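Researcher: I'm preparing a figure for a lab meeting and need a structural model of a single chain. I don't have an experimental structure, so a prediction will have to do for now. The sequence is pasted below. Please return the structure as C-alpha cells so I can convert it later.
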Amino acid sequence: MFKLTASQFFLYVCLTLSGMLCLGVNAVQADEAAITPQQQKISVLDTAKESVIKLFVVSHIVDTLKPWNSYISRSTGSGFIIAGNQILTNAHVVSNATFIEVRKHGETTRYEAEVAHISHDSDLAIVTLKKKVPGFFNTRSLSLGDLPQAHQEVTAYGYPVGGDSLSVTRGVVSRIERSVYVHKNRSLISVQVDAAINPGNSGGPVMSGGKVVGVVMQSMHSSENVGYIIPTQVVKHFLEDLKDKRYDGFPTLGIIHQEIESPALREKYGVSKSQSGVLVSMVYPNSPAEGILLKNDIITHVDGHKIANNGMVEFRHKETIAYEHFVDMHQLGEKVKLQIIRDAKPLDVTVELTKTVDTFELVAAPSFEKKPSYFIFGGFIFMPLTDDLITASRRRAGFDEKVMNLKSFWPTEKRQEAVILTRVLPANSNKGFHDISFILVEKLDGKSFKDFRTFYKLVKNSKSEYIKLEDEFGYQVVIDRQRAIASQEKILKLYNVPSGQSEDLNQLDKAEESAPAKPKKAGSAV
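Model: Understood. Here is the structure written out cell by cell.
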C-alpha cells in the first residue's frame, strides 16, 4: 500500500484546508452579493425614517368675506432634516401658523419650532427649533439628488392622516412638466408620480437611490394614486435664494407670448422652416423685457435651448418642458440670453431679470400671514379685488363672472388695484341696496381712482352730500354720506363687527395724522 511521508501529508492537509477555505469564502461572498441590495434598501429606509419629521401646526385663518372674523385650525404635516440643522417642509403646511411643534420618528416628545423662511411661490418652507435640543439633529441630514428620470422608482415618506406612525409608499415617475402649484397658483417644474399621496404626506421627502429627488406637494383628488412632488431643482433654487438670508422669488420676463404653429403666422414674421419659437404678443410696461423685446418679436432660443413652435424646449432626450422653465431657474438679478427674430432678421439680446410675476398682476395672488384690507361705510363693505376674494365669492349668489377677466389685466399708472363692493349690512340708511353684492367700483363721483387706499381716502374725506359709485356699465350706488356716518356705529354693533376698517387703514390714518402739515403758499387765502 502507498504510504505518504510526513512532508507529503502536511502538504495534502494544507491544500485541502485551503480549498475548503476558498470555497467557504466564495460562498460567503456569494451570499453577501445576494443580500447587498436588500441590505442597502433597509439601510436607506432606516436613515430616511430617522430624518423624517412630523409637524403639528395651529393656524389662524381669517374669513375672507368677513375679515373681522377668524378661526383656529389644527393640522399635521411632514418634513425632513436637511443640512444646517433645518427642517424642510411645504409652505402650505405652515402658512398662517401661530404655533408649531415637531416630533421625530419613533419618539413621543414634541419640540416647539418656528418658520425661518417661506416661499409661497414654490410651496416650500424652512422650519427651525425655537430652542436648541441636544441630539435632535444628530441624525444624518438627507442630501438632495438630481431630477429623476421618467419611470424611475421612488419612495415617498410622511405622516398621512389616519395614523400616527410613519408611512412609506412606492411608485414611479409618470411625467415631468411645468404645471400649477395649487398653493399660490404659480407654475414651476413639477414631477408627477403614481405613489399614494394623502393629506398629511405634504412636505415629506421622496427618495430614490438614497437621495431626495423631490418634496411631496399635492395630489389630484379626481384620480387615484396621482400625486405631484416639487423636484430638487426648485428646492435648490429656494435654498440658493436664501443664502443672503432674504427670499426674493422666481423671476419673469414680463411678457405675454403666443405659439406659432400656424404656417401663415410663421410666414408673416419671416420664420423659416428650420426656425421655430414663440411670438411676443405683449411686453408689460416697466417689465425687465421692456425696451429689449418688442411686440411681434419671435423668441427662438432661451439660454441656447431651441424653442419649438408650441413653446416647448427639449431638456433631456425626447423630454420637453415649457421654455419659461429656463427663466424660472434663474435667480432674481441674473441675466437670461435670448435669440430672437425681428423683421425677419436674427438678433441676440440679454434681459436682466429684476422682477417677479407679482409685479404684473392687477388681481393679487393668494396671500398668507396677512389680514385682508376692508372698509365699511354705512353698512357698505369695500375690499380690494384679490384672488382670495374671488375664490371665496364664486359660489355666492350675485358673483359677476366678468370680474374673472381682470385676472388677465396688469397694473397701470391709472389703476393699480380694483375695488369691490362685496355686500351690504342691511340698515335703514342703505335701504334699496340690501341685495347687491360683488359690484366692481369703476368710478367715485364720476372720477376714477388708482387703488384701494386712494378710494378709502376719497370716501373718508368727501364733503359731498351724496357719494355716487358706478360700475363699468353705469349702474349706480348712491350713499347718503351724513346718514352713513350717523348710522355707522349702530350698524357695526348690530352685526358684531369690532372695527369698521382693517388695521392697515388704521395705520394709514395714524401716519397721515402725524405727518407735518404742508406750508401754505405765500399770498393764499387764510
